[in-house]
Amino acid sequence: MKRLLEILGDWWAGLVGSAGLPSWVTVLGEMVFAAILIGAFIAVLVLFLIWLTRKVSAHIQLRFGPMRVGWHGAVQTVADAFKLLQKEDTTPRVCDRPVFNVAPFLAFAPTVVAFVVIPFGDGVIVRDLNIGVLFLFAITTINVIAIISGGWASGSKYSLLGGFRSAAQLVSYEVPLVLSALGVIMLAGSMKMGAIVEAQSRVWFVAYQPLAFAVYVIAATAEVNRTPFDIPEAEQELVAGYNVEYSGMKFAMFFLAEFANMFLVSAIAATLFLGGWRGPWLPGELWFLIKSFAIVLLLMFFRWTYPRLRVDQLMSFAWKFLLPLAFVNLLATGLIIALG
Amino acid sequence: MATDTAIRTEEFQVNMGPQHPSTHGVFRMVLTMDGERVVDCEPHIGFLHRSMEKMAENRLYIQFLPMADRIDYLSSMFCAVAHCEAVEQFMEIEVPPRAKYLRTMFMELNRIASHCIFFGVFALDLGAVTPFLYGFRERELTMDLLEMTSGQRITFNYVRFGGVAADLPESFFPAVERFIKVFPGRVTDYERILNENEIFLARTKGIGVVDAARAINYGWSGPNLRSSGVDFDLRQNMPYEAYGELGYEPVVLPNGDCYDRYLARILEMRASHALIKKCMEGLPEGPTQKEKVSKFPKLPAGEVYVRVESPRGDYGLYLVSDGTDKPYRYKLRTPSFNNLSMIREMLRGVYLADIVPIFGSLDVILPDVDR
What we know:
The complex is a heterodimer. By secondary structure, chain A is mainly α. Chain A is built from 13 helices and no strands.
């Protein structure tokens, strides 16, 4: 994979050079190429994840799930996606139209951008920024704005409540999430994703940071609004929360963002704690996918086995339990590093 | 801080239902909210009013028999038994013992089916989807048994004046054996899914607490009343059908919160299972239908009040006859209506998210409320 990308890059640079174009064309071309690649990856990934969710939930619930369209319903999601494309795109009369229209894309965009710093394999990373982790957490936070503006612009009380809840939740869980990642950064001595993976070449950080890993997984579950923390979309109280007024493709965008986000937090967990793409025998890209999907499955098992917390319980859990835990972990890590 | 710069909060109204996934039918609440807190709740019922009582008064007794099943479609056996018992009391006939046992057994099977739905729906209300399908798995077992005998899965139309419509078919015996064998394990499954789940406990313990006095004042009955610590179960206190011979020890729990109301139903499933087992063991031989009972009875003038312990509580039927072949007055006292009556008081001051478990824990069936 790395070889392939290098060959492609050289070929492109050579092409631009021979045509006599300025060097920024090279960079632009690379950016477009990366965007297309990541876009395609996310599209296929989400289709697969939705199918996986349906199958996992079905087998937990004594059902088969989709069985008719393709092998074990493998292309059911594709059919559903086409259905959503064809659907009438309704817009409520009382909505704040520009905000309402922008919100779904605002939800989806940061997720795509975040994939820029995810190392899929040895050297298979769009840009290995030296502030990689910081960039990741900063960019995923934008999601809140999308959710709250979607909830606000819909002009419905249910979606407004959903948006508020979501904002409160994401802001609360962002703190332990970042703090749990901080331990890893201290150990690796860098925020660069490549360096973090490099630092785990002998032992995975989950061995040094089990507490941080636990905090991260819990906070990440809340971050992507999965049960037991799916309060923004609490079906039984808010019907569907912030996206209740959305239909057709705009709804699909929220849906897409949700699933892509789920994979994103799993990929971050795999990179920060489980050694990223490193592993014996198999190619790095495969190891990365295996590890990420292990976390995805964990999130799915949570989702289909647990009831939902109440919003105030969620808050007190974040601030009174997870946050102190993350701080203790940080302190311990610091002490150990300082004492050698 | 000057008042004009302080953050002002404003109460707002939210309409919940009648089309809402967790109002269990068509219940409507107009909620006055202060953020996530409920300030007031104005319940609206009547969306499922079908005029059952008036329909009964315009029909022959036998014509209303299949209708009675539809008063509360999750416990239709109980409605039918109440109807038949009332008519039998007028006609002063004694039902053959085998028919009594069959009625009792099918009522208990129906109770299990109803509680299975409660289990599934209550978990669903709290956001756990999986238990819903587990509940339906066992409901299917009971439905199969009922279908074998009555031919119907939900509205059975099985009870007749002076007996039951059909004796047990041959295939019923191995099936019920199997049911008796597997069911306790399945209830254990339920308990392992939810009973000690931290999140479940956090959502239900101490939520929607109702003490015994308040429960009695509002006319609560059934598992709701018993989970507030009142030991009252018609099956024990005023035995009817075969309950007197079988004996029954009610499930009584002390706390009166959502968790106890949930647990009461789980324990009642076990108790019902034991009753079914006893019924099958002690099933007397003999006819299932008393002979020479008029299908179109003309009842003597008078009145009776029949009570049965439905899965939701004390199901009462006050039947007045003026000597014709139709009821003069057919008054229903349905448990769901009384159980729901406290909802406004219970919801004041709770969180929005608690509305659903509190409402769900009452196990209200809207057609039973509206009739």
